[in-house]
Amino acid sequence: MAHSTRSQALTDGLISSVTGVGAENARFKHLRSIAARGLRNQPHARTNQFAVHATYEGLIEKFSILNRDDLAEALQSRWDEMPDRPSQTQPEILSLLLLLSDRPVEKTDVTALDKSHTQHHVAPSLTWQEIVEHDPLTDDDLWTDVQRGYHSSGAEEDPSEDHAVSNLSNSIQATDVEDNPEVLARSYLIRLDTESYDISEQYIHDLHKAQAADETVQLSELNMIRETFSMFQGLPSRLYRCSKGNNISIQENLVLTTATASTVIGQLQCCANVGSAIWSLRQWCQMAHGISHTHVRACQADIQDNLNLFDRDLAGLEYGLLELNVDKVVSILHIATNICILARPLQQLYVRVVRPATSSLTGGYTLLDKLYSTACEAQMHEDNPLFFLCAKLLTNATSVYLRSVATWIHSGSLEQINDSFFTEEANSKDWTLGRMWIERFQLKLTSAPSFLQPMVEQIFALGKSQAFLQELNGRSANSGLHDETSYDRAPFTTWARLKSELVDMPLFPFSEQFGQSLSDWLTTNTGQTNKSLRTQLVRQERVLEFPDMLGHVFHSSDGVQFQLFATALFRRLKGQQTGWYDDFFLTEMAQETLGTCKGVHAASISISVQARPDSANMTSFEMIQQISLHYAMPWPLQNITHEESPTVDAQVLCLLLQAYYAKSLLSQPIPDFRQRSSSSERSMTNTSVLKKCYLDILVTQPSCYVEN
């Protein structure tokens, strides 16, 4: 029982140390069952020491066969030193060493074993107590001024030295350096290394000589490496020349003393091509004139940070060449290869993103499109350096680009008017409030990034809704009274968060992950925009009451008022009164009858006659057809119906008036059938009755015909 408990505790510790899963994790029980089953199936409870001894003896014989007698003798000597009575854990230790070995014949250096036994004696460091004991601080000579040439044994004074240094006093009294700050500054200057300066001068002299005489000059590998580093760091170089188009080329009359001309020129030309892209990228990052897009400037700042990291890596390569503790072979081919590997992501960034974006005339959003497409392609090709670079730049630039989009969503105003935004506002003289929804703002689908195309129309509608809502509240969307903190409440995802998601799900496409982040951002920023506009239109503008108003005015929903209006109108038509087509009189008549219905604004009703006909030559039906009733709707309703007055409903009213007039004509006394037995007269009477019934249905229930 105790052995089982001990084994279970060891198994739990093994699982926690190997997998990092604790006992509180749901997977822990499953992993423990697998581990226990595997340990139970082991044929030996401990390591077979005889198999281990046989393996080591086989290694010694194998080393001898592979002509590594030194390694075989070293292993044999140490094997002989093993105690006759091994410890309890010795077989496990020897087996572990066998498992940790990695090609010992190729990688083992026997001389390193001798170095491990040498003892290095480190001299004890000098303490302040020992210094004070040897030279007490109370000694007067300690604080005296040090004379010039004190430590020199009669050496002549160097005339090139600055005599102003001697004016710097080391006495206690000279504590105020403000009396002569130049003296203190000169004391920190480092003297020029004349030997290195002479070598550089000779190199420059030979280089100018070769350029002037068009001769071939042999240069050392060190000078070529130095000039290559200078070129990649954006510094002037005498080995490389830059043309007006930021194209870097090499001086072809220079050769290396230790390699053929074709090899050196080919490698340097490769460096020049990469350096041209890096140099153009540096120039573009410093370009501020003519760039009004904030997301482009943010991208420039991020690329400049990556260029600074690239310069730091170059400095690390240079520092590696200056280490004196390690013997290294300095090669221009090796250095150029390493630099090109470091610069490859930046080179591809310029070739595939920056250069096409700067030469394009489609707007600032082209940079976002190129970053997006390059990031997706790099992920598919498993080019991780380029993918992470483009994905980071795209995330940060999109975060800045979405600030103007968030301002549009929350305030309905355009933060910046440029060709990178997909919304354009018309001139205030080109639109009215009644057609604000369709005429004030125009959507430019071709001016939006490709990854934002699926949600452009939704964003456009949200911004128009907010501008419409502000007009309802009596504010202009361009007054600047929008919520400045709207973007801060729901910012776009950060690169750190997106990168962690990409690392956790490496097979998940970047396009899907980025699109999901955009959808989440839009959902968060949508808020209550549409709901607020809908609520205000229903509660304050009462748009739901508009159909009832149309029924009272145009569809004879109120039969009493419709009959009064129609009777008064027919009376004027039958009487052939002069000026029956007077708009003012007809409008007043309609306002006194139809304008008294519930929910109808009488002042909004007006009647116009399309022509001024001669009533003597026209029938009453033709006169009614010339009458058109208008109802001036509020501008919010005009944006919904896209017309100032219901045109179709006015035609329905004209039809109802004609039907009601026909009904009045058919409402004549029916003749007595007993006195007139003619079949034609009876048929005409029956037809009149049927027409009258049809007209009754048409006049009393016009809504069914209107809906159909």
UniProtKB/TrEMBL annotation:
It comes from the Eukaryota. Residues 65-146 form the Gamma-Tubulin ring complex non-core subunit mod21 N-terminal domain. It is found in: Cytoplasm, Cytoskeleton, Microtubule organizing center. One of its GO terms (molecular function) is microtubule minus-end binding. Residues 225-535 form the Gamma tubulin complex component protein N-terminal domain. The keyword Cytoplasm applies. One of its GO terms (cellular component) is microtubule. GO terms for biological process: cytoplasmic microtubule organization; meiotic cell cycle; microtubule nucleation; mitotic cell cycle; spindle assembly. Its main location: cytoplasm. Signal peptide: none annotated. Keywords: Cytoplasm, Cytoskeleton, Microtubule. The keyword Repressor does not apply. InterPro entries: GCP, GCP5_N_ext, GCP_N, Mod21_N. Belongs to the TUBGCP family. This is Spindle pole body component. It comes from Polychaeton citri CBS 116435.
